[in-house]
Amino acid sequence: MKEEIRCGGCRALLFKCETNAVAGAIEIKCRRCRQINQLRPMSPSPSAVRAASGE
Ligand SMILES: [Zn+2]
Question: Tens digit of pLDDT for each residue in 16-44?
Fold first, then answer.
């Protein structure tokens, strides 16, 4: 099953991966709004890391 990982700031699609495909933390910068999304396997939703964006 594929999971869509979206930007926590603008909801742009960042990438797709299989569920549990990610073993460690990921940082990915949104090319649209330049927000850095920090993703973790336990909580793959970027919306949980909005506090780290410096908004
Ligand atoms: Zn974005």
Answer: 988 888 888 899 999 999 999 998 876 55
Q: Which residues contact 52 (CB under 8 A, 6 or more apart)?
A: 36, 38
In the reported structure, the alpha carbon of residue 6 is separated from the centroid of ligand 1 by a whole-number distance in angstroms of 8
Residues of the domain holding 28? 2-53
> What is the predicted pLDDT for the residue at 30?
97
What's the CA-to-centroid distance between 40 and ligand 1, angstroms? 17
CA of 20 to the centre of ligand 1 (A): 23
**How many domains are there within the chain?**
1
- Tell me the whole-structure pTM to 2 decimals: 0.63
